[in-house]
Structure formats: structure tokens, C-alpha cells
Amino acid sequence: MIEIIRSLLLKLLWLYQKFFTLIGFGSCRYYPSCSEFARINFENNSLSSAFYHSLTRILRCNQLFDGGIEYPLLDKLSCKPTKLGMESIKYWLVPSKNNRFHIIKNYSYKG
Amino acid sequence: MTPNQRLLVAVALSVIFFATYTAIFPPVQPEVTDAPKSQTVELNKNNTQASFDDKVIDAVVGHEIAQEEAVKVSASNDILIIRSKDFILKMDTLGRISSKELLQEKFNDQDGKHAQLIPAFAAKPLFLRFVDQDINKEASTVAYTSSVKEIDLGTQPQKVTLTQKLSHLTVTKELTFYEDGHYDAVVSLSDNQRYFIYLGQRPEITEQMMTVSGAMVYTDDELVTIIEDGDAEGRKGFTGVELISAFDQYAATIMYGFSKDTNIIVERDREDNPVVYFDALQTMKFNGYVGQKEYKVLKNIKPVLTNAIEYGWFTFASQPLFQFLSWLHGILGNWGWSIVALTFVVRIILYPLTYKGMMSMQKIKKISPQIKELQAKHKGDPQRMNKAVMDMYKKHNANPLGGCLPMLMQIPVFFAIYRVLLNAVELQGAEWILWIDDLSRMDNFYVLPILMGVSMYYQQKLTPSNFTDPMQEKVFKFLPVIFTFFFITFPSGLVLYWFVNNLFSIGQQFIVNAQFKNAEDAEAALARTKKSDKKVSEKSDD
């Protein structure tokens, strides 16, 4: 059930990123943008945590905050990749505080 | 894909988007003006239905009444005509309100005819149907008689008694009419029979697309149930009802003042449109209103009636907005200027946010060569480019982008305004300046939509944006064109709002530019004076 909701939300985000960003006029103050941030969160963290972090991010995305670079954080490390290579790694996990990790996109990731 | 192909795809997609949008909020069909034709259609329909429904006629199904009604429609004559300065109301031989014409010119339809609130071929207000089939049949053939033939309604309410003498039953309708369009009704039978009173079908004078029409039930727990045309299903019962209303964009047929245990029934007709009626007592007292949903009028009759003005599911935000707009109108005396003032107030509220953004936009101008350099360096890799640009913004402590929150917040605000301007009957016939003589209708000269498009284009040029996808950027540049076409048929009031909003935004940009330039000049001047001061002091040291 949770996985269905997750994939549904991810599809919605994909749809938003593809077609509806226009209403936002591409005006996000952050990198990665709020929608991207939410997408990575929903891909890697629990639903509740992803909801919370995406929401607070959107609330912070206004001119009273500085914006800039802010990577999503991984809550729990649980990846066991079968093969490794520059092109099959989707995200780099960079250790942060409290045993959490920054999730940073791998620009060379293909498919 | 080549950029051109992408552009085509993008435009096609936006068309699909608007098409689906219109599918979700379908345009209301224009009123059938070809009356004789629709009459035959109606009769045929009901004949076939009659053979179908003969068996289930005892069930409390609302639609078979239409059959007798439709037959009677040509035969029925008006037994009572009520004239007031604002309307002419007629009651027919079946004791129903058969016609209500509004005399104010501003309500005239596009052909210049008076607005007719009662559709010709549908269930009409105050129609009675008995559960006993024999009585029902007789009732459809025996004409009502009226105590008076004609009434000239002044400020004093006038009372009329309509009587129908059947072989075993006498039906009496005591109606008191008021100048503001409402009436009090007491319906009584000489014998206890189960019967129903009909609210009547909604007015059919809507011209605009994307408005809600159908039936509404407002219960004492402040719950609004709206059954839109085409969405009615099964049969629903309500008790503790404050008011029932069958409405289109601006007008409504309303009944209210029921006792708490009155059973209101909403059912569907052949087109899945709602039909509303209620289970009546031997002596049934209630009130009714047929007319435009004007806030002041409804409030003066009974405050609860203002709930009949609805703005779709967004009523909770639109209602206070209308109050505010109405208050502005009280001061300015013109709806057009009230809309301009409303826009101004919205801009003032957003000012702290937009101001900060515009200031940092100025700072960015200084480092724009460096940003261009970055963009050239990361050409073809928008992800990396965005990151580099963000880095640069951070370094210079300036971020010109508006942010997602203000953008998301604007959507409900705009939607609320949109619903208010679409549904407020007060805007009908409300003029502004020059050629705008009705804010509720489209601009016949297309000037306002085009001005809106041009101002939007200009504003876009002034606003920085940050697209990762070149296709999106192209569509974005096309938006003013799409919007212009989209807005062409919209009520002028709405286009006016959007246009003025763009203007204010452009104006604010210019003010900020000027301020920034002044500040810079002052800084430069200060620096110069400091320098010369230094020189002077050095010299004096010598």
C-alpha cells in the first residue's frame, strides 16, 4: 500500500516537473529545486519523513530565506548495490551530522 | 527532437491541459431558444417514458410529472399576473410560478430580451404532486382559480389565494408577495393526503462557461450540499434544512423557512440533473424567492439566504473576498475601480516579499557577466549549471528568484478572485471606464485581453527565471499568447484584475530600479566626498 502511494506521488511529481513547473515560472530559490528535493526524498526516505521535509522546504522557499544549495538528507542507510560503476550510481551519499547523509545526484548517472 | 519539434509538443500539451480543464469544468450549454422544437422533443421523450414507467408510477419518482406538465404547458393559461417595478411574475392554471421576468435592463440577455428566470419546459416552483395517482391525474386537469387577476406590487406586500377544487379535495395556496422578490406560502389541503411540493428547475440564463449550476441544500449544521447538473445520482433525503436552491451562475429559485423535520428529497431526472422537492404537511408554511443572487437583497430578506450564493468548493475563501470587494464598492461606488483597489491591496500585502526579490535582482545585475560565463561553461548540462548559479548567488548574498511558496500561495488567491468575479451578480451591467460597460461579460473589442497579454509579456521580461529544461522555457515564453486566447471569453472583471496586477508589478519594478539607482548614486557620492575629505585632512596635516 505504502509503495503504491509512493509510486503515485512520484508520478505526480514527475508530471509536475514536466508540465506544471510553468505556473511557477521556474522560480525556485534552491538547488535542487523544491520538486526535485521532494522527489529525491520520496524516493529514498519514509513517506512521513519525506512529507515533512518537502513541506518545510516549500515553506522556506520564499524571499525571507536565503535559498541556495540544500541537499536532501538520507534518514537510514540501507543500500546494497549489486554492481557499482560511474554510470550505475544514481546518488552519492555524503556523510552529514547525526549519522545522516546528504543525497547528491550523480551527474554521470545513465538510466 | 529538434527545438522546433519540442516547441510543437509543448504547445500541443498546453492545449491538452486546457482541454482537460474544460472537461473537468464543462462549459454550460447555451439556452435552447428554438422553443417549439424543444417542446416536441420534450413531449416525445415523456411519451416514451410514460409507457416505460407505468408500473413504477406509485413510487415516489419525480419525473413522470413532467409528462402531464409538458402536455399542459401549451394549454395552461396564466391566472395571476403580478407586476412590480423590477419584475413580472405569473402563476398558471396548475398553481405554479410559470414565469418571472426581470425588468432591469442590466439583466437582459444577449438578444436584449428581459431575463426569464423560469425555464419553459421543466418542473416549476410550487408544483404539487400527490402520491395518490387518481388525485394526481385529476389535479393536472382542474385549473386553479385565483382571488385576484392582477396585482401591482408596491412597497406593501400583497396576499393572494389560489384554490383548486377537486372532487374530493380542495387545495389552497395562500401566497404573500413582496417587492424584493420573495414570497410567503401557506399550502393547505382539506383532507390529509401525502403530497410533495416542487422547488422547480434552475434558471437557465448562464452565459459564461465554467460556472457551477445545479441544486443546493443548506442544512442547519452549516453544511452545504451541492448537486451539480449531470452529477445527480439516486435519491437523497435531507432533514434540518435551512434552504434549498436551484441555481445557475447568477440566479436561483430558493425555498426556505421549513420546520426542522421537513423531509427534502433530491432526485435525478433523465439528464442526471437534480430535481428537488419536499414532503409537505396538510398545512405547510414556508417561504420562497425567485431572482438574482444579489448579496444585499438576500441579506435583507433573511441573512441565511446569503448561503445560496456559492462559489463552488472554494466558497470558504471566496466569500470573505467578496465581502471585502463589496466593502470597497461601498467606498468607491464603482465595481471596476473596486477591482483595481483589490489588486492594489493584494500587491501591498505581498510587497515585503516582492520588494526583497526585486532588490536582490538589482544586485544580480552586477554579477551577470560572471553568471553568463557559468551558463556558457555548463551549456547542455542544466543541472550542473543551476548548481553553479546558485553557488554564485550565495557568494554574493543575493537570490533574485521568487520562490515556490509565494507562487503556490498565489494560486488559491487567484482562484478565489476568479470564482467571485465569475459568480457575483453585482458585476452584471456594472460599468467601468470607456468601452467597458459590463464587467460580467467578455470584452467585445478584445482590448482588455490583449492589453493583459502585452503586460504579461513585458512583466515576464522583467522577472528572472531559472529553467532547467529548454522546452519549458519556450512554453513559458509562449504563455502570454496562450493566456490572451484563454482570457478572451472571460468576464472583463477578471481580465481587468489580471491586467492591473501585471501593471502594478511592472510599476513596482520601475520604482525599485529607481530607488536602487538613487542608492548607488548616493553611495558613489558619499565615497567621493570621503575621498576628498581625506585629501583635505591630509593636506591640513601638512
Walk me through the structure.
The complex is a heterodimer of chains A (111) and B (542). With 111 residues, chain A is an alpha+beta fold. Chain A has one domain. Chain A has helices spanning 2-24, 34-44, 47-60; strands at 30-31, 68-69, 73-74, 91-95, 101-105. A three-stranded antiparallel beta sheet of chain A has the order 3-5-4, with helices on one face. A two-stranded parallel ribbon of chain A has the order 1-2. In chain A, helix 1 runs antiparallel to helix 2 and helix 2 runs antiparallel to helix 3. The longest helix of chain A has 23 residues, at 2-24. The mean pLDDT of chain A is 80. With 542 residues, chain B is of the alpha+beta class. The A-B interface holds A 19, 21-31, 33-34, 58-69, 105, 107 and B 13, 17, 352-354, 356-357, 360, 381, 383-384, 386-387, 390-391, 393-394, 397, 399, 401-408, 411, 460, 463, 465-469, 472-473, 475-476, 479.
